[in-house]
Design a protein that fits this description.
The protein is of the alpha+beta class. It has 4 domains: 153 residues, Beta Polymerase, domain 2; 85 residues, cca-adding enzyme, domain 2 (Orthogonal Bundle), CATH 1.10.3090.10; 124 residues, no CATH class; 42 residues, no CATH class. It is built from 22 helices and 9 strands. The protein has a 7-stranded mixed beta sheet. It has a two-stranded antiparallel sheet with strand order 6-7. Strand 6 and strand 7 form a beta hairpin. Helix 7 packs antiparallel against helix 10, helix 9 crosses helix 14 and helix 16 crosses helix 18.
């Protein structure tokens, strides 16, 4: 990669995209691809979204695209953004089309913009140099802020001064670490680190949803450990995730190594579990503060509440815990324990522990107990009335069934938990 570049990619040759660029470039106007699609293509990574910048005003964008057969949605028209859907006979991709603009007022969270025709001004209002690359329809990359050299050296650098960019939108502190996790190498940019340290108090003004969205994307990076280390060093991690402050982030290193060795997929929620304590009260508070979805909250709580298996547990004891505990929470615990054992070294004791935990993890992953053979109807038929006594009898029967290795049948369980008089015997 050099200071000049040309892109050749399947997504750029898509007839619908070429038609869109031609439509927005007619009669003296201009349109270019901008941002992540260019960055990822130059780095030979997958491209998910394609954004377009244009000199056309938003209303003109909608009129031109509608006339050309595209569907338009004014998703952010006050800020110049229109979502454009390709015609039905194409691949069905959508594009975010935004008018060139510059900020005329910022307050750390929102900006008032003025539409314009100056490509350099539009590039200079963006966050990082590697995100401000443009590309013409023929694949020629237009770099107005030094993004190509930074991309070549994997340097994540703010455009026009880190403090100024952050004061425009404090979310850029988290984006700095998130993009470093995905695209940076070596030590993060010193100016960016100093600005993040000094201005981290502005993070309190951000919505929980924006904070969690950035943190989750960071945790999904191939290896977020270096970014998390610098977030900790700057105090940014404690500002958004105080639960990690005393617990520490050491567990993330072993987990990343284990993921590579075992072929586990990158899992943002498991990685979050690695850097917060398994404490239900603290996890509940974290979930409320970051406004996690019910699904994410329940997974974290299952992890926090799970009774940990031990490397010395036999199969029968392991199956008992797996039956009565949330299996997902146990699997998460076992993965973190396996990773921790691997991180302790390669001596015989550590290797033995890791092998035992790996065996339990395989068991937990595949565990599917048979259907419990006893029901409340069976107990009623045996003369027991519904109520706390029946609930206690069913629980006692389940424990006996699990302890037997799930082999005791219905009739034997009834004998164990129901007396001849029709009531459960003392247990």
């Amino acid at each position: 990669m050099t200071a000049t570049a040309t892109i050749k990619a399947g997504w750029l040759a898509d007839p619908a995209l070429q038609q869109l660029l031609a439509t927005l470039s007619a009669n003296g106007e201009e349109a270019r691809i901008v941002g992540g699609a260019i960055r990822n293509t130059l780095l030979q990574r997958d491209v998910a979204d394609i954004d377009v910048a244009t000199t056309c005003l938003p209303e003109a964008t909608m009129a031109r695209c509608s006339a050309a057969g595209f569907k338009t949605i004014p998703t952010g028209i006050d800020h110049g953004t229109v979502t454009v859907a390709a015609p039905a006979d194409s691949r069905g991709r959508t594009y975010e089309v935004t008018t060139l603009r510059r900020d005329i007022e910022t307050n750390g969270r929102h900006a008032r913009v003025l539409f314009g025709r100056d490509w350099t001004a539009d590039a200079e209002r963006r966050d990082f140099t590697i995100n401000a690359l443009f590309c013409d329809a023929d694949g020629t990359v237009v770099d107005l802020v030094g993004g190509l050299p930074d991309l070549e050296t994997r340097t994540l650098r703010f455009i026009g001064g880190a403090e100024r960019r952050i004061e425009e939108d404090y979310l850029r502190i988290l984006r700095f670490f998130r993009f470093f996790a995905w695209y940076g190498e070596g030590r993060p940019d010193g100016e960016g680190l100093r600005a993040a340290t000094r201005l981290k108090g502005g993070l309190q003004h951000l919505s929980a949803e924006r904070v969690w969205s950035e943190l989750r994307k960071l945790l999904a990076a191939p290896d977020p450990s270096r970014a998390l280390l610098w977030m900790r060093q700057t105090g940014v991690l404690s500002a958004i995730l105080p639960e990690s402050e005393r617990w520490g982030i050491d567990g993330i290193h072993g987990l990343i190594t284990a993921e590579r060795l075992e072929g586990w997929p990158a899992d943002a929620m498991l990685r979050l579990s690695a850097i917060v304590p398994p404490d239900a009260a603290r996890v509940t508070e974290l979930s409320k503060r970051l406004r996690l979805s019910n699904l994410d909250r329940d997974r974290l709580l299952a992890f926090a509440r799970a009774e940990p298996l031990k490397a010395t547990d036999g199969e029968a004891e392991a199956r008992r815990k797996m039956y009565f505990e949330d299996r997902g929470g146990l699997v998460d615990r076992l993965k973190l324990m396996t990773a921790a054992a691997g991180a302790r070294g390669h001596d015989e004791a550590a290797m033995t522990e890791r092998a035992a935990l790996s065996r339990l993890l395989r068991l937990a992953t595949r565990f599917a107990p048979p259907e419990f053979p006893l029901s409340g109807e069976d107990l009623r038929a045996a003369g027991m009335t519904a109520g706390p006594e029946m609930g206690a009898a069913l629980l006692a029967a389940k424990r006996l069934w699990v302890e037997s290795g799930f082999v005791i049948g219905r009739d034997r369980l009834l004998e164990k938990v129901v007396s001849p008089a029709g009531s459960s015997p003392p247990l």
